[in-house]
Every structure is written in structure tokens, then in C-alpha cells.
Amino acid sequence: MDGEGLHAEIQLPEGSWWDWDVVAWNAGQLRLAAGHDLTYHHGLELVFDDPAFVSCPSSFQDPVFRAPSSEDLLKVARQLGRELPVVVAFEADAGGQEPFPCLIAADRLEVVQETVLRYWRDDAAPGQRFAPWVRPPGR
Asked: What is the value of pTM for the model shown?
């Protein structure tokens, strides 16, 4: 799924997307990864290109995505002085007593579903991707 002009609830592909964390974040891209257990791999990434507004914890569980409210859109527009094509809103369990309200605004969103390994494996299938921090032993 590609998101341009997305101001609706995100529809995730079928799967167990309970556990989430930030796997990469720089000025040009924010990558949220999800899976049922992030110890060895993840199977889903939300890739936000040119994120301009990010309010979410670095790791969280069981997010409930929803369409951004008019207040969410106004908050982003006031903070940035402009509207953005992609605004994603959700509440998630970040370990506190109440769900954490999250909001991300960016120029583009891509949903990538593939297995990404979080540890080195010599027997990884050709073309199989490793998380950004994974390096071969001795490197």
C-alpha cells in the first residue's frame, strides 16, 4: 500500500502485529517495525518518507489505528505551518496506565511486508534483508 494524501485509518495486511519499535529514523525516513515477537525478526514496516511531525514512543504494543481527527490535522498544521499529505493517528500501549496517543505526519507512507532478520545468519536466503544494525561477525 502506498499512501499519498492519506488522512484515513491505516489498513494493515493480515498478520500478528502486536510488538512495534522504531528501527530507523533520520531526517529523510522513519521506519516502524512490527511483528508478534521482535526478538529474531519482524514482518511489517511502516516507512514514512520525510517525516515532519512524530509523536510516538520508540517501542510500543498493540496499536489501534484510527483516522486522524480534525484536531490532529489542526495540530500538525499549526506546528508545521502547512498541511502534509500523510497523517497517521493511533493509540498504543507504551507501558503506562493509559494508552499513549500517537501522531505521525509525513510526505509519503509505504507499508512493506517481508521478513527482516534482526540477527546475523550465514544461511539467510539470497536477497533476505537484515535490520540496519545487523553486521556479519568480525565486521
From this structure: 0.88
